[in-house]
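Risk register update: the risk of archive-format incompatibility is retired. Evidence:
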Amino acid sequence: MRLNDTTDLALRVMIYAVSIKARRFTIDHLVEAYGAPRSTVMKVVNALTRGKFLTAQRGRSGGLHLARAAHEIGVGDIVRHMETDFDLVECMRSGSGCTITSSCRLIAPLAAARAAFLATLDTYSIADMAISPSDFGLAAS
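Archived output:
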């Protein structure tokens, strides 16, 4: 199983957010920290704010910050919000064209593996992912 690049960046944005504690941050901070294209960072931040993982405040003293306490934001929830396709193979997709779907014995183990993957992520919150602000070249707060 592979997460898409926007999910990867979303998780890194959330690691940044939790690691800098209560400081507000901007899209430009994220671009600098990760070297990702600004348009991609904007897309990811918009998805995270729509999902109520981040809150955006406009204005001179605005910026981004966690929408709620870090221990309340599950890693599995972020992945589920960002991923658009958990159908690992053709037979797991609606309207499957595979001729053996009705008798296939692969579907159940793949579904179980997917469930186990997400269940493992559900045991972690974004608080568990915090690293030192110095890892981003920032002074500790």
